[in-house]
Queue: 2 jobs
Job 1
Amino acid sequence: MRSDDQTFIEQLESLSRSQNGALIREQLSDERPEDLADALVRLDLDEGLVVLKSLDAEQAGYILVELPTETARAYIRELPDTTLAHYLDILPMDDALDLREELGPERFDALLEIIPAEDALEIRRLMEYPEDAVGRIMTEQFFEVSPDTTMAEVLKDIRLSSEEKYETVNDIYVLDQHSHLLGVFSLRRAIRALPDQKAGELMNQEPVTCEAFELAEEAARRMARYGFYALPVLDRRGRMVGLFTGDDAQTVIREEDTEDVLKMGAVSGDAEAYLSLSVWQLVKRRVPWLLGLFVAESLTGNVLRYYGQGGDDLHMNPLAFFIPLLIGAGGNSGSQVTTTITRALALGEVRPTDWWRVTRREIATALISGTILGVVGFLRAFVNVPILGWGAPLDLSLVVGAALPAIIIWSTSVGSLLPITAKRFGLDPAVMSAPFISTFVDATGLIIYFEIAKHVLGHLGT
Amino acid sequence: MRSDDQTFIEQLESLSRSQNGALIREQLSDERPEDLADALVRLDLDEGLVVLKSLDAEQAGYILVELPTETARAYIRELPDTTLAHYLDILPMDDALDLREELGPERFDALLEIIPAEDALEIRRLMEYPEDAVGRIMTEQFFEVSPDTTMAEVLKDIRLSSEEKYETVNDIYVLDQHSHLLGVFSLRRAIRALPDQKAGELMNQEPVTCEAFELAEEAARRMARYGFYALPVLDRRGRMVGLFTGDDAQTVIREEDTEDVLKMGAVSGDAEAYLSLSVWQLVKRRVPWLLGLFVAESLTGNVLRYYGQGGDDLHMNPLAFFIPLLIGAGGNSGSQVTTTITRALALGEVRPTDWWRVTRREIATALISGTILGVVGFLRAFVNVPILGWGAPLDLSLVVGAALPAIIIWSTSVGSLLPITAKRFGLDPAVMSAPFISTFVDATGLIIYFEIAKHVLGHLGT
């Protein structure tokens, strides 16, 4: 990450406003695609398009690869075929499917005609593998020799091999005539060996491998466990069909970890960069869980009603029946946000300077999900139908329906701003844990509930 | 991970019982250290010691490196100097400090005398860097050339270099006479270049770098972001002092992610493998947070008392004041456990076959933390001193004090068994999220509370 990222964003914005293609190309041609992608996520779509269209098509392709899927999709709709062809030629296979979905199969097939035929064939082959399988993200480019190849021949082959192939050569794979993997040795080893030594003598005969149909996450964890930078990929008959490289494995692990973290905070969906998601996408990732937990939590209300409706020591004010529901909804929405933001901060997807970008979309998200839960909560309290509702008085039901959005907006604001503020002051944002936010929101949320109750119940009368 | 890990553990157990050193050495000499370490974590200390002492000292050293810190520490106390010297010679610097702490400075210095002098010096140098800094985990072994070295000379140097040095050679670093980093090129590139081409012409002049005093996590994330397998490490004056390799970077990221996940679940402490921690260590990682959140949550009780003690519409049974406290404690302890176990399952540290190893230690942990919270909860309810306590009646205080450990034991059991069961049936354990467990425990926890209340309050009389 550039240390001057905020300045860089502003530079891009003003370049974009200049609409001067030649200037843009000249100023940005030496920038790394990762840095440009990072800034483009923070630009408006129109501004970003000016930049991408001004750049050399190859550079634009490399930037598209680095963009989060959702942002890339938005740009893809607007970019010319030359840029898309460059992109298609280098993108990971996961993204190829997204691209096809976005462009439609016809335009996608047309693009495949533009790129080198061999690459187009590889794309078609790899797209056949199931999602999340190693085969989908492996490369078919690896360096193979037969067991009786001498080291002198190996080095000569490397000198003569295609640019693409030699990109992956840190290890050399020894295959028999039926493509079965016999062993592996490193390029370093080849250099240090005697020129007439044979691959079969030099190789390590028990390489750690993975299978094309295996879950990519499992293969990636195995690679990390043994400290390798690539694993050979075998088909079901033990033939080597590709190479699972370390940087792809790291991406898989990072995304799986992100998805796990989000799931543990009750947020569903793929590991998408936070800033690339729209408010509507944020709502879709959170509201189903919030609603599900809300329904489950209302069981707690049933328990309270069961014990608290008698006339004995356990008798309770019906106001109490809704307490777990309200603090549960506040705690859950707070957990969702703090989990999302803390992870995005850890990955560097969000930085403290993004606080307004975050707050803006979180408040909009909370307004929508708060309204949905408020309506459901009101109905749940008011409707007098067994199982569906509790038939509470209108005034109490209104209190519940009004308290829910208020508590959710409050807990969402707390859950997004506390981790960012912690990071801003050099603290570890992860200490603003889900339980911490929940606890904090519990007490304050109840104040909101009772203040609303005091005014509404006092005036409407029970 | 071996597919037959449970069988492998049993094989180790029976080998250990045989006490036959020669047999153990023969049977295990070809196993990977990662697999042996994985099994040793699950063996009793005595059994594991028999294995480690039987193996060749060098192999034992490699296994110690792969063991989680806490397990390694336990073995270190019992192992002979020859094994420890092999271990010291290859361990990451973080572990060197643990080793010194465990052995005491004198025995540690004695060990440094046994290993090669150059390695001992490197260890002493790197131990000077601050914790979590790149300098602490970099290697000082890298391949450097001057800008006017020809490729023919580079390849000759690689052939003649020491075994240790050539282990790291995928990239070759170009340094000026004052050790300032000028550029980098890959070994592949060197092979494909003309023999009389010079390093200075070939190199990439803008390598991504890191600094020795920089946080290792930041450097590791940068390495991952740009998809590199190593970063050159510079001192404050721009001189290259070491290499931060990709496998060390991955370990850093994995550990930082684990610590973040645990923190987000309100568990403190380093990223230690779950099974290597004792019950007492689990208690230490969780109870401070549980207690802190308990105190914070009792503010919610204050809010309830404030609004609920009047005689108006808001009046409440004092029994209700403790509801947020009880469901909070249940939810928090459930979150702690489910977060810990889900992460351990994702990393493969815990497998479904470990369910009894997990349940055993979780119930013991819950007994201890439940008792502590029960006592604190009873005092908090009963003591009639402003700020410290609420002066509730004895019977109600007893109900709170008894419900807390019961709820905590219940939520801990649910929080540990549900993710393991999910994994066992091929589901993603992460869907047993903290909010899910909390919600589930809320309703059931209240049943526990009211059942205890019904019996105690009924009999003691308020």
Job 2
Amino acid sequence: MYLLERDRTVEESVEDVCRRWGGEFHIEVVDSWKGCIRDWGGKVVHLTMYGLPVDDVIGEIRGSGEDILVVVGSEKVPGDVYRMADYNVAVGNQPHSEISALAIFLDRYYEGEGMKRDFGGSMRIIPSKEGKRVRTS
Amino acid sequence: MYLLERDRTVEESVEDVCRRWGGEFHIEVVDSWKGCIRDWGGKVVHLTMYGLPVDDVIGEIRGSGEDILVVVGSEKVPGDVYRMADYNVAVGNQPHSEISALAIFLDRYYEGEGMKRDFGGSMRIIPSKEGKRVRTS
């Protein structure tokens, strides 16, 4: 995850989750979003409600076999992002949460299997009808 | 949308989106979450990472044909919610964003068609490869 501004709260929260639940998420603070996009070795996907429907382009994106950089803008996104992205992708053409757009994009990208992934953490949930069951190893 | 505490910012934002983009979303402030769940006429679905995998139960939930109240807890959720819910549903058994969980749940519930829905607003996006195209009627 590349962030334009250092945010210790986000960093600590991600580190804490990884320590307990696994996964290799890490955060890097970058000086320039343009440099970050330009230097990316694979495809750049910008999530925006103005883009092409995710279901129309996800096959092509997945099929590229390249690493994907997903760009999620929080407020007004500069026009250059639209031009620099390989794909401007809409998760619905209505206003929506950017975090939700990212979740649905990843869900489509991994064809629903992402949710079932084992991140190798020391804590694991045993799914239950009611209550909380956690196994710690 | 039922909220336990009045939040004018959320209300105004939702009203503003509906005015421009359509949809019948509205917000009601309730005194008691227990009353809200108890008085609901249909099924109550509580989204929690401790629950049963969404893909295992979504068919049964959709098949009930009843109205669905989705309960999303922001911080520590009281144990009673787990017991009062008809379904405790996990959108992945890892820590995640509650908003994303709601998005994926709705996406599964509507079998991917929710995103394509026309909310009848005066503003509509024309999906494009690059840039922003909006039609106002």
